[in-house]
Amino acid sequence: VQLVESGGGLVQPGGSLRLSCSASGFTFSNSRMSWYRQAPGKGRDLVATIYSDDPSTPYYDDPVKGRFTISRDNAKNMVYLQMSNLSPEDTAVYYCYAASVRSWGQGTQVTVSS
Known about the structure:
This protein has strands at about 1-5, 10, 15-25, 35-40, 45-50, 60, 70-75, 80-85, 90-100, 105, 110. It is globular and about 40 Å long. With about 110 residues, the protein is an all-beta fold.
């Protein structure tokens, strides 16, 4: 099983980023997929989840509702997190998580700063 995140970086407040997670080694289409984040000195928090059986009704944590969009491409074994209107409070390492195999990616750093 392998999950590889990409797309992180430094962005100014109000800016946007798109994170990607490439999955392999398991049946991606059958797995609930999530994005988590961990800010410095804090625990790892759930950001968004997209379901395998109902991808049209994802879950979002309250702080990101209306700003972040999770999506998946089962043909490419990819899950995405489109982030907009970013604020310094969104600064964190973002992780991809595959529920069916209980596996994490290595994380990608997102820094929001002017």
